[in-house]
Records
---
Amino acid sequence: MNPDRTLLLVGHPTEAVRTAKELGLGVILLQHKSKFEPAQAELADETFLVEYTDWTVSGPLAEFAHRRWGFAAAVSLTDPGLEIAGRVNDRYGLGGTGYDVSHLLLNKAVMREHLRDKGFRATIGFELVRDERSLLAFGADHGYPFIVKPTDTAGGFGVKRVDGPADAAALWQWIAHTREHGMDRGPAALFTITDFIMEEFVDGPEFSVESFSFGGRHIVVAVTEKDIAPGHFAELGHTLPARIKPELESEIVAVTTEFLDTVGLRDGVSHTEIRFGADGPVVIEGHNRGGGDRILDLVRSAYGIDLVGYALGWPFGLVEPLAERPTPNGGAAVRFLHGESGVVGAIAGVDELKERPEVIAAETYVSVGSRVGPLQDDFDRFGLVAVSGADSHAAATQCEKLIAESVRITVEAEVGA
């Protein structure tokens, strides 16, 4: 491997490894055993199955790899690996995003403190949860409802809406239990619960913004509308380009670029989540990675831009910087499959959809016999269908039509439940 063309990848899926190899890069992969696929080892030049979220493990491995083969960049596009890649970039002076920015974006409380201290306009009131009394005090100071969530997880896990003082006692008991026992579903091995944050509630439509930063120059590639519903914190779908008025989109773009400047992100892909409330756009979360939920596939379909390829190629000068916001050549949408609690009895229609030319992806996360619970967060979804179309409306309409007409996932009540 040529050290000047070798990349340390932290926690990437198979397609990202394949993209790096297609760019002509040498690849040293640090992967968690729960995310490993044999194809990753076949593609990567060197693969280490480790608890890479533990710096006492990944740090010495990075040192060994740097001495043995050398590498010119460290990149991660998954939350559990971002701080590790940042530490590596800092240690060896590789440029790219370092630990401080990665940590600031990963830890929601640190991000809120930073935005407050910098006088960032599109933020909200917050406090860390200390005890049951702190929940009651926040409600008294900021009003109800308000939101409580872990400072350092993803996928909507542990997000709770507090509607009044009567919710405080039970919620505090749940927080104490979760701090002690951790996550009970989803990628539990990759996230550690530390603190919980209280935030003012913003009522309004939600959007995400996919951007790429070229040496501090931020280009918003796509604004995506989220399909959400009251009663839970699972995202039910995404559609891009967002179907909103140009003046609202301009406000979202302006807030996003200001946010990226404020947090100090200078290079790479980013995913910013924004709610448009009564007083305008408010940043809910920001990440120095691309959006999940197949959003990057939607971007590739509608805009012809591979943001994973940009993220891996930019540190090596293998991609040309975008001069301006791209124009979409169509629309794309993803909708998630969900249902009642119980045991999955049958799955039909999903595999057949993969053969249709407009289908970007069709997959299930559950199998026959899986126990499924009520829809609370992203980890309770059954699967997805993603579709391209002539425009956003056509893609969303076709996606929902295909699911309604073709997909059948039956869930049977558990005996004795």
Note: The radius of gyration is 21 Å.
---
Amino acid sequence: MAEQLDILYRDEHIVVIDKSPGLLVHRSEIDRHETRFAIQILRDQIGQRVWPAHRLDRGTSGVLLFGLSSEIASQLGRQFAAGTVEKRYWAIVRGYPPAAGSIDHALSRQRDAYEFSGERSSSEAQPALTHFRKLAEIELPVAVDCYPCSRYALLELDPITGRRHQLRRHLKHLAHPIIGDATYGKGRHNRYFAEHLDCHRLLLACTELTFEHPLSGQRQQIKAPVSGEFAAILARFGWQPVQ
């Protein structure tokens, strides 16, 4: 049976899916040997071409928006570029961040892996802003790092800008990296979650996307509850925040 994606919303102009962790949006330099792509699976599933309006990192799960024509996808993409799309994420991080706050930290330009360029980044920094709110926290009696106990927190994240790897880089800058992040995270904590909590993914998910429908102009709010290993960690920690 052909692989199926979880469709959150669909009409004659757009389709929104709940992307699973580990799935690339489409072919890129990240892994030239990969054969599974959201754009291809969705095309086969609904029987028509689709165009992504934005992207999620391979390890990030959650709400992913497509246009059913290149013109619609371009209209949606302009909303992302203009900053009128409201994006909400959940992440599990190391440590106890403040109850709420903002990370206003410029980030150097990093070329997207889809651009197929030998020039991967630039030293020129671009403004980047993320608001966050702590939803839950826990202290485990386990010495994962240099302390006798280990602390973790669940954050709600609202990225105002859309820089590449912004949330992962901002949380590293805050000294509270996301669990499961092999590039910007802490290896000891990633291994603890994998070996002792049976969680092998990046604990970052896009849980909500709000945008203007390109035809009607009405605001559309699409939500995707966390699932799988992410949901299992929430249950294990006794966290029951409302999405």
Note: The domain at 6-237 is CATH 3.30.2350.10 (Pseudouridine synthase).
---
Amino acid sequence: MDDWQQRIDAVWDAAAATSEEETVARIDALVSERPADDPSALFEAAGARDYAGREADAEPLYRAAIAGGLADPQRAQAVIQLASTLRNLGRPGESVELLHAELTAHPEHELADAARAFLALALHDLGRHAAAVATAVGALAPHLPLYRRAVANYAHDLTTR
């Protein structure tokens, strides 16, 4: 891990003890050390704005980071965070489309279940409650020590009703 990323991580580690705007300012100071089109820097700037409740400011930065070739695992994080931002901006349909595309392209990614959790929230916002529950329960099923098969089958049944 390079020094820049370590300093970014230190800001996030201290975020709970500082104000949201101070966190944004500290991230922005580090982002300014990188080229304006650096995908990792754009991702960090977006995340800081998201953290501060400034979703409208975060959205174009997430999109630029992804379009700029952000590498995994940050790419997957950016997609999930962008989907969450879209949902918070009142656009759950766009969130569902983005997460469906992510899960289709990367169904076994280490963050796939996190994507499914945000997908369930967006589906709920759209009034697609059975699909939301099926998505959430389906993501949970593989992690259960008992009843894994039964829970997975119930999740599947919700989508076929």
Note: The mean pLDDT is 95.
